[in-house]
Amino acid sequence: GCAVGPDYVVPYHVLPDNWHSPAPEITSADSETQALADWWKNLGDPQLTSLVERAVGNNLDLKQAWARVKQAKASRGMVMADMAPSITTGGSGSSNWSNDPLAGNQPKRTYSTSLDASWEIDIFGGTKRSIEAAQADYEAVQENLHDVLVSLASEVAMNYVQLRTYQKRLALAEDNLKLQSQALQLTIWKNETGLVSSFDVELARYSLESTRSSIPGLQSSLAETKNRLAVLLAEWPGSLENELSDPAPIPVGTLQIAVGLPANLLRRRPDVRRTERELAAQTARIGKAESELYPKLTLNGSLGYKADTLGSLMSPANLATTLGASLLWKFFQGGALRENIKVQNALQEQALAEYEITVLEALEEVENALMALAKENERRVSLGRAARSSEQTLQMALQQYESGTVDFTKVLETQQALASFQDKLADSEGTMTLNLISLYKALGGGWSPDEAVYDEDLLF
Prior knowledge:
alpha+beta, four-stranded antiparallel β-sheet, elongated, disordered C terminus
């Protein structure tokens, strides 16, 4: 039969030819599938690679998403079964007693067995549209699985980079604490010799304790990050303490990223692919709703035996067959069927809007990630220069203070400037890598579209 309702057509988008945000340091060459599929390897950190691979194997959110895929596949199979005939078999036996005195007290027994079949002919394609919708739903759930993969890889990497950033900031704070402790001892010695007043001593102690107060917060954030990584790997919080206790450098990636063209996002981003499949499913449901306006034809058949004794049940003389057809037409439903069609059309409009919103937001995320990466790189370079200058300034201020040419206020200012610039520089180095990870995620990295395989075992 024919399938009523609209045939689905993938929405056409005229996307920009190039990205607006890339800076000269970032290339916009065509993206490489494998480079984006396992982008974390580009950061050159074996520990990070190990954590991501373990998360992919154990993460509970990923297992939950995979279970949804199996559920959607089974649901699709249930809908596809409607295309096949329904066959049932059974048997029965009964005894009846009569109140008629002439019949005596002997019961009348009846035995029967039958094989029954029915098949609804899909004249107007309602079942076909239901299968189309179930297939698209199944594909959408698969895309959701891919989306979880993308998010999982980026979340593991981001937490790992934050962990290494906290470790570096903590080490810098402890180093500055030692330097400020030495400065405090210097002021105490000069105060005891009468060269300076106790005011310098208190200033030095104030600076020391200020730095010391920042350490517990860093330690707490470090512990929270380790716990988060453990949970992402489906392990107990605290289980990674020994594995990640030794500080290591913040992973650094190259800025030469093959971001490809905007049109590539329609193929790479799982969330875009998912909403497109959801739109396809909803389009098919319009046809299913429209098919309810038309008659349904069902073929029925039965093959069975009926006898008064069990021994003669299978005798050819007791064979009975029937063959027929039935036509059912919901002629009047008070307008409910046409209202349902309007509902399905409105849902399709919502699905189309959701798809278009997802495309726009995907473009926005990439543009923002490109800009953030470029500008953070400029900030990191400036902070590096400032940190080097403040370190030299502190050495000169300490020499001048020891010789008595400047007061301790100058030393305090340079100490605080050095500590601030070093901490900001470490934070900026971490933010650079975090922005790089955000760009990989925005590009849909973390899986390969070439590996997406949909079952095509449809019956029509």
